[in-house]
Each structure stands twice: as structure tokens, then as C-alpha cells.
């Protein structure tokens, strides 16, 4: 009997190996077909967009450096005025940072409640979990610029529409990330608090938030970096801040390119500064949590 089982073992190994190789080949085939479809869609999409464009992409490709060259040359000629221009537009930079900070704070609070109400095992109303998740999906699915354009039409131009638009998108995005973190929490503390008669808010505050706070703060800081860029971009549609001043300087054309350069310097320096500060604190939070 032992001889029969041993003699059949090589055939079983060969069968397993052949089956594994067949699966590998199928996966490679499916992967190759997916890549091919992706390339075809990319090429066809580019051709459609190029046909609908006012000017051909390849025809204007050689002019891609003309505008930056004009801005840099004029800024270099008027480099003595750059410090005064930077000081002139510094209040607009403060407005941009304020928009990002307030919208991040409001969005983080909204995302916190949406995540806790939409997480299995933590939600106060389990039947409403799909509703809260769909609300967060809708909030992050609509781009900030679309929300801002609607609000500008209703409220007029200024920082308030930008703040509301960014806060809505931030709440939806953070709700998704917060929810993924909350699903990995240890429910023993929550169950212990529930056994003592603690309310839902007490269970969340004392049993869940201490576990997830480092990740929550890390994601909020990351979102703050994104919102600084978003608040500058929304200025192009009349939402105030540094982006609004940059749009005016760029729309004026030659003669105010030095102002555009000063605004670029302010914006670039601010983004780099907050990226470094935020990354440093996020690394501290994640390292401290891992220890």
C-alpha cells in the first residue's frame, strides 16, 4: 500500500503544478487584455479630446514653455519689486490659509460624526448605516469647484462659498478614511462601557476616540495640505484668497507678470512649509502609535 501511495505522489505533484501554471497563464492573459483595453481607451480618449480642443495638442506643444519664460523674464527684470509685492499679497495668503483651516476643522467634525454613524458595531442606529455612507459618498463625489460655483451664484463671490465647498468635500473624504480606521477598533472597551450604562456618545468618546485619535489627526493634517491647494484653486472662480489675485494677475497679461511671480512664490512657499510641518507631525503620530 505504501508503494502505491508513493508512486502516485509524483503524478499528484505534476497535476498541481500544471494547474498552478494554467492559472498563472490565465492571470497573465487577463492582465494583458486589461492593459490593452486601458491603452486603447487612453489613446481614443486623447484623440477625441484633441479633436474637440480649440488648438491641436501637438501643434501647441512647442509653445508650452513660452508663458513661464515670459513670467520669469519679467519677474527678473522687476526683481527689486518682488519683496514689496509679496508683502502686498500676504493678506490674501492669510485669507487662503484661513479658508483651508476653517473648512478642514468643520469637515473633520462632520466626517467624525458621519464615520461613527456609518461604522458597523459603532453606529447608534445600525439600520441607517447605508444612509450615512451614501451621504458621505455624495459629499466627496461632487468636486469642490462645482459646489463653489453653485454657492457663488447663490451667495456671491468671496471666501464663504469656498469654505463651505471645501468643508463639504472634506467631510465626505474624511468620513471614508475615519470609518476604515474605526472598523479596526477593539470593541471590548465599548462593550465594557455599555455594560455600565454609558450612553452612545460616552462610549464613542471614552472607548473609541482614544484608540483612533492618532490616525484621525494624521488624516486631518493630510487633508489640510490638500485644502490649501484647493482654496487657492477655488480663487480662480471668484472665491477669494490668493487664487483670485493670481487669476487677475495672469488675466492682465504682460505688465503684471511680476505680480503673478510674487503670488507663485507665496503659494509655493506656503505649500512646501505646511507639507513639511504636517508630514513631521503625522510621522510622529504614526510612530508613537506603532510604539
* Helix fraction bin: over 70%
Q: Give, in order, the helices and strands.
A: HHHHHHHHHHH
Total DSSP E strands: 0
- The amount of beta strand, in percent, is under 5%
Alpha-carbon distance between the two ends: 56 Å
Note the overall shape: extended
Poorly predicted regions are none
Instruction: Report Rg.
Output: 27 Å
How would you classify the helix and strand content by structural class? Answer: mainly alpha
Largest sheet: none
Mean pLDDT: 82
Number of helices: 11
Which helices and strands, and how do they pair?
Layout: H1 2-52, H2 57-60, H3 66-77, H4 82-117, H5 129-141, H6 144-155, H7 159-182, H8 188-195, H9 200-234, H10 242-252, H11 257-290
Helix pairs in contact: 3-11, 4-5, 4-7, 4-9, 4-11, 5-7, 6-7, 7-9, 8-9, 9-11, 10-11
List descriptors.
mainly alpha, 82% helix, 291 residues, extended
Question: How would you characterize the overall build of this protein?
Answer:
By secondary structure, the chain is mainly α. The chain has eleven helices and no strands. The longest helix is centred in the first third of the chain and has 51 residues. The model has no long low-confidence stretch (mean pLDDT 82).
Amino acid at each position: 500500500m505504501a508503494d502505491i501511495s508513493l508512486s502516485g505522489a509524483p503524478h499528484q505533484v505534476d497535476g498541481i503544478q500544471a494547474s498552478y501554471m494554467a492559472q498563472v497563464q490565465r492571470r497573465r492573459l487577463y492582465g494583458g487584455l486589461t492593459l490593452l483595453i486601458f491603452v486603447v481607451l487612453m489613446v481614443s480618449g486623447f484623440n477625441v479630446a484633441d479633436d474637440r480642443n480649440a488648438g491641436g495638442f501637438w501643434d501647441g506643444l512647442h509653445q508650452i514653455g513660452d508663458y513661464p519664460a515670459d513670467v520669469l523674464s519679467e519677474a527678473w527684470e522687476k526683481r527689486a519689486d518682488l519683496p514689496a509685492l509679496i508683502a502686498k499679497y500676504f493678506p490674501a495668503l492669510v485669507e487662503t490659509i484661513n479658508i483651508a483651516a476653517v473648512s478642514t476643522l468643520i469637515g473633520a467634525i462632520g466626517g467624525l460624526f458621519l464615520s461613527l454613524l456609518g461604522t458597523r458595531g459603532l453606529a447608534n442606529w445600525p439600520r441607517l448605516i447605508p444612509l450615512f455612507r451614501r451621504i458621505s459618498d455624495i459629499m466627496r463625489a461632487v468636486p469642490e469647484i462645482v459646489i463653489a460655483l453653485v454657492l457663488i451664484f447663490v451667495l456671491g463671490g468671496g471666501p464663504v462659498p469656498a469654505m463651505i465647498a471645501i468643508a463639504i468635500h472634506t467631510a465626505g473624504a474624511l468620513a471614508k478614511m475615519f470609518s476604515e480606521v474605526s472598523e479596526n477598533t477593539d470593541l471590548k472597551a465599548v462593550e465594557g462601557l455599555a455594560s455600565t450604562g454609558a450612553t452612545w456618545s460616552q462610549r464613542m468618546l471614552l472607548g473609541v476616540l482614544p484608540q483612533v485619535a492618532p490616525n484621525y489627526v494624521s488624516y486631518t493634517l493630510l487633508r489640510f495640505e490638500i485644502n490649501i491647494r484647493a482654496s487657492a484653486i477655488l480663487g480662480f472662480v471668484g472665491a477669494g484668497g490668493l487664487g483670485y489675485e493670481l487669476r487677475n494677475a495672469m488675466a492682465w497679461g504682460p505688465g503684471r507678470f511680476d505680480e503673478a511671480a510674487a503670488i507663485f512664490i507665496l503659494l509655493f512657499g506656503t505649500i512646501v512649509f505646511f507639507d513639511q510641518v504636517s508630514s513631521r507631525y503625522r510621522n510622529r503620530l504614526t510612530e508613537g502609535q506603532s510604539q
